[in-house]
Every structure is written in C-alpha cells, then in structure tokens.
Amino acid sequence: MTSLQTRGKLYLVPNTLDFAVSADAAHADLQTVLPLQVIQIAARLTQWVAENAKTTRAFLKRVDSVVPLSQALQSLNIVELPRPQKGAKVAVRAPLDGLLAPALQGLNIGLISEAGLPAVADPGAALVEAAHRLGVLVMPLSGPSSLLMALSASGLNGQSFAFVGYLPVDAAQRTIKLRELEAMSRRHQQTQLMIETPYRNQALMAAMLSSLGANCQLSVSCGLTLQGGWTRTDSVALWKQRPTHLPNDIPAVFALLSV
Amino acid sequence: MTSLQTRGKLYLVPNTLDFAVSADAAHADLQTVLPLQVIQIAARLTQWVAENAKTTRAFLKRVDSVVPLSQALQSLNIVELPRPQKGAKVAVRAPLDGLLAPALQGLNIGLISEAGLPAVADPGAALVEAAHRLGVLVMPLSGPSSLLMALSASGLNGQSFAFVGYLPVDAAQRTIKLRELEAMSRRHQQTQLMIETPYRNQALMAAMLSSLGANCQLSVSCGLTLQGGWTRTDSVALWKQRPTHLPNDIPAVFALLSV
Predict the structure, then answer these.
(1) Structural domain of A61
(2) Each residue of B157-182: pLDDT tens digit?
(3) Beta strands in B141-213 (DSSP E)
(4) How many domains does chain B contain in total?
C-alpha cells in the first residue's frame, strides 16, 4: 500500500460510439471523436478495467495507429468489470476493490466502456465509487456522449433534462412509463431522454406515437458520429403523418418534451 | 432559398471548459479536450452564431494555432445569440430564423457557447429548434461536457440522472428545492445534478450541508479539465466532518444521490 501521493489514478477513458455497429470500426478515425491528449493518455496506460476486453483491444489497436502504445498490446493487463444487467440500479461491490489493486501499487488504471463515457448509461459507477472510498484520484477525460450530443441536437430544453435509461419491455408497463415521463416533462419543463436496445428501436417508436400526446415534442438521434447519422425533432402529430423507420442495428437516443 | 441538398448545415461546436476561469486560456492546448476533426471543421467555418463573440474569437485563435483558419479571423461573420437569462425556460423565437440565413444560402454555420456543448445548460436550443423547423441539418460534434464528466467521476448513479440547472438564490426557496431534489432522488434512485455561479459555490455548499440528510451522497467536481481540477464524493455527514472550501472563481458541478 502506497501513500496518497504515489498512488495511481483512475482515468475514465471515453470510447468512440461505433464499436457496436460497424464492422469497419478499425478503419474509422479515432480523431473524429477523441482529443489527441486522451489518445496519448490511453497509449501510456498499462492497466485497464473494461466493460468488454475484446472491444478494448480493438480500441487500443486504433490508439496505437495514432500514438504508439507504451507496451505491446499483449502485455497489457485488461480485466473485465463484473457485468450487471443493463439498467440494473445496483452493482456488486465486493469484488471491485481488487480491480483497483494496481492503483494502490502506484500504477494508473484506465476504465473504459464499449462506447462513450464510462459510468454513464453503462457499468463502471461502482468502480468509481470504490476509487473514491480507497483514496484513488478519479480523472474524467473529454469524449463523446451520445446522450448529450442527442440532447444538444434536439433543440429541446437543455437547461433541465433527465436520462431515465431503458423503458420496460412489457408493452403495458412501457405505456404507463411513457405517460409518467410525459407528465414529468410537462410539470418540470424537463426533457426526458431514454435509450433502447437497437432491435427494439422501432417498437419503442411505435409505443411513443400511440402513447404520447399529439403536441408532445419527440426527438430521435440515430448513429451520431457515424456516417449518415441524423437527428429529427417534430411533434408526435408530425411523426405520425411522416413516419421515419428506425434501423434495428444502430443505437438511437429518444428525447421527449411536453410543452 | 436553396434546395434541401444544397443548404448549409448547423454544426454544434463544443468549446473548452476554461474560458471563464483562465487568463492564460490562449496558451492552453485545445487538443486536451477537442478532437482534431472538430478543430478542422471549426477552422473551415466562416459563419458563426455565438453565445459570446469575444470568446469565440479567442477560441478561433487557438483553432488557428492547430489548423490554419480557411479565412482571416477578421473576415469571419460572428453574430451573438440574443441572451436569455441563465436558467430561463423560454427563449425568444422571432429573431432567430434570421441567424440561419447563411445556411439557407448554402453556407455551413457553427453554433458555439462560452464553454462546453452548445444548447446544453446554455443558450442555443432555440436556434437548433429553428434549424429543424427550416430544414437545416443539425450536426452535433464530440466535446467536453462538464456535467457528464462530473457525473462519470462522481461514482453516483449514471443509469438515471437529471440536470436541473441553477437553484433559487433565495435561501428559503433554495432549501425547499434541495429537499425536493433529495426526495426525487430517493424516489427514482436518480442522481440530481446542478450548477451555480462560481461566487455562490460556497453558499450552495453550505445550504446543501444544512438541508440534506446525513446519508445523502454529495459529489462536487471543480475545474474539470483544468490544472488542479478535482472530484470529491462523500456522504453529507463526511463533508460536514471534513469540509472542503470551494473556490469562488471556478465553475463547479454539484451532484446528489439519496440512497
């Protein structure tokens, strides 16, 4: 155990938004979405805690093509986070302290998700909580967040907004939740953001068009930062008049504001 | 008026997080927080709508030092957004359409805030809404968001969170609002994020420590992406035992989660 001064830090390393969707991800340019300094920090880290080790290795190959890794990829220590159910509220705490052992020995650690910022709409928060508890400094880095890019592109209220994660899969429960969100949005003039597993994009869209009021503003962002990514914001009435079919293999962010 | 195909786009250009706080901002490295591609896009834009023209010119000088501007800074068209009160819910719509005239003539426009992502916790959403209405494509770009960096660094729940902007200045109203947020956080297990004008950082902190329950988790991020930036997460009880004095000239993000 080292003193606070010589402990390693926990870097929160943002990932691109394209791994889940593109077979050509390895050819995409990392500098579209990541600052050079973030790539430089990633190139130096030898200890990783990852949502997914395989996509982390692919990420590090892309890093290496911009800034050579300080050590061979094969020699890096990449450990996977215990994976909670997406949307689960509480992660297991017990085994996480061990993942921070390298920091207690003086080595910096990188935490990385499959896409976007770690610990936002993704596992990882419990590891960050453990870092605070153990006195390991937490260093967030700048990178793409599909949620906030979708919010800024929506034109809906960015002064007050909430992200509620995934809606219930059960149709009746989903309708109840959508009406709750619409009421909350109206009461607080708060934009409500949510995501869905891509193959259920179209089902969520259909549920929104049948559950929400005609004047409710609905924004959908699909494939942001990818070739052909788009954002459409319209009233529910206009979405019904001119529907847009959503792809079943590209992540989308949904936002509603009841005005 | 051009056809949809030949219209210009509205790029949402992220800014650094340091203008409001650093006299040496011009010397800071843009590539700490911005992807090279974003800098390249900014270097080519000749039409700007800005929260603040002066800081936009300073930003563009920094862009120029990485990627030469396509036109002399003096020849760029930089128009300021009409400035709503911070936290105001409704912006004036009438004059905004005119700001998009260059796009209707085929020129790309950049929208930029004084810090972070445009239209998030900042004016600009009304311009984005006008773009959607006029058929101008909206292109959000990857960059730093102090809100989401603070959330990821907090270790609090990132699967459900809300940003509520500024709290009331009046002490009694602020206490009521803080208790409402704590109750909301407990009910939905939702992290509640807020910001304050830096000179009131310490007043908000004092109000939190006196209004919130001892077990409420409180996270403060101060000066993220700046030299010496930090995040501390502890229970209200521990913050009271070991207070941290907050600077009155550096923006902070406050987050609470009632567990």
Answers:
(1) 4-140
(2) 999 999 999 999 999 999 999 999 99
(3) 161-166, 191-195
(4) 2
State the pLDDT at residue B3. 65
- More confident position, A82 or A149: A149
> Contact, B193 vs B253, CB < 8 A?
yes
Average pLDDT, chain A: 91
Site from B30, B34, B90, B145 to mutate, A interface, most A CB atoms within 10 angstroms: B145
The CA-to-CA distance between both ends of chain B, in Å, stands at 55
Q: State the best of A49, A152, A195, A221 to mutate against chain B, taking most chain B CBs within 10 Å.
A: A152
Read off the pTM: 0.94
Residue among B119, B144, B149 whose CB faces A158 most closely: B119
Sign of the CA dihedral with B230 first, then B234, B236, and B242 last:
negative
ipTM exceeds 0.90 = yes
Average pLDDT over residues A54-76: 96
**Helix ranges restricted to H, chain A:** 36-44, 53-66, 96-99, 101-104, 125-134, 146-154, 171-188, 201-211, 236-241
Query: Same domain for A12 and A134?
Result: yes
| Residue B31 sits at the chain A interface (C-beta within 8 Å) | yes
Same domain, B111 and B188: no
Instruction: Identify the band that residue A18 occupies on the pLDDT scale cut at 50, 70 and 90.
Output: confident
C-alpha span between A67 and A250 (Å, rounded): 29
Q: Are residues B116 and B85 in the same domain?
A: yes
Q: Which of A93, A142, A222 to mutate to test the interface with B (most CBs of B within 10 A)?
A: A142
For the record, the structure tokens of A238 come out as 């206009």
A176-226 pLDDT tens trace: 999 999 999 999 999 999 999 999 999 999 999 999 999 999 999 999 999
Given an 8 Å threshold on Cβ–Cβ distance, is A31 in contact with B36? yes
Which of A148, A160, A162 lies at the smallest CB-CB distance from B145?
A148
CATH number at residue B183: 3.30.950.10
The partner residue sitting opposite B32, judged by closest CB among A37, A125, A224, is: A37
Domain end marker among A110, A140, A170: A140
Inter-chain contact B163–A164, Cβ cutoff 8 Å?
A: no
For residue A190, the model assigns a pLDDT of 97
Q: Which of residues 154-173 of B touch A (CB under 8 A)?
A: 154-165
Out of A140, A172, A196, a domain closes at A140
Around B32, how many Cα atoms within 13 Å sit in the side-chain half-sphere?
Answer: 15
pLDDT of residue A3: 66
For position A242, what pLDDT does the model report? 96
